[in-house]
Amino acid sequence: MSNGARHTWGFFAGVALTAALAALLFFGSFRLHHGLTQFDDQDKWIGGGMLAGAAVVFALLVASRLSPVASLVGGLVLTAAGVIFFVSQTTTSDLINHLPYLVQRETVNGLEEDGLILFAGVGLLFASLFPSRWRSRDTDPIGYKDATSGTTNPLTSDSASGGRRAVRDEQPGIPV
C-alpha cells in the first residue's frame, strides 16, 4: 500500500475512531456516574465497559500499524475542544448547551473540567509526532532487503567487504 493510500485511510479512520472515542467517553462516564450515585449495578458495569471500550479505541488510534494521520486528526479535534474550555468557559457552555439532555451536559462539562478531553487530545497529538510512524512500511530504514528480493545481507554473505558466512554454509552435510 502506498503512503498516500495509507494516510488517506488513516484520515478516515481518525474521523470515525475520534467520534467513537468521544461518544464512549461521554456516555460511558455518564452511565458510570449514574450507576455509582444511584447504586445501579447494571449502569455501573455498562459505564465501565464503555470506558474500557474508549481505552481500546484510544489504543487503536495510537497503534504503530495505523497511519499517524488518524491520531493527528483525533488529537487536533480533542485538543481544540479541551483548549476551548480553558480559554473561554462561556463558549464551552454555549456549545455544551446544544446537547439534547441535561445529564449529558453535566457529564461533558465534568470531562472538560477534569481535563480528560485535553489529556486524550494531547496524548493523540504526541503519538503522531514520532517520525518512524510517517515512514512507509515498504522500506527498511537500514536499507537491507530481505532474502526474497535477490540482494544479500553483507553480514551473512561471503564478500570481499569482510562479511561472515552463515554456519550452515560451512557445514554442507547438515540439511537446511
Describe this structure in words.
The protein is mainly alpha-helical and 176 residues long. It has one domain. It contains seven helices and no strands. The protein has helices at residues 3-37, 41-62, 68-87, 89-96, 102-114, 116-127, 167-170. It starts with a helix and ends in a 6-residue tail after the last helix.
Top keywords for this entry?
mainly alpha
Question: Care to give the gist of this entry?
Answer:
Helix content is 65%, strand content 0%. The protein is built from seven helices and no strands.
Please tell me the total number of domains: 1
Shape: globular
- For the secondary structure, the number of strands is 0
Biggest pleated sheet = none
Which structural class do you get from the secondary structure elements? mainly alpha
**Radius of gyration, whole Å:** 25 Å
Percent of residues in helices:
55-70%
- Counting DSSP H or I runs of 4 or more residues, the number of helices is 7
pLDDT < 50 runs, ≥5 residues: none
SSE run? HHHHHHH
How far the N terminus sits from the C terminus, by CA atoms, comes to 33 Å
Mean pLDDT: 76
Question: Layout of helices and strands, plus pairs?
Answer:
Layout: H1 3-37, H2 41-62, H3 68-87, H4 89-96, H5 102-114, H6 116-127, H7 167-170
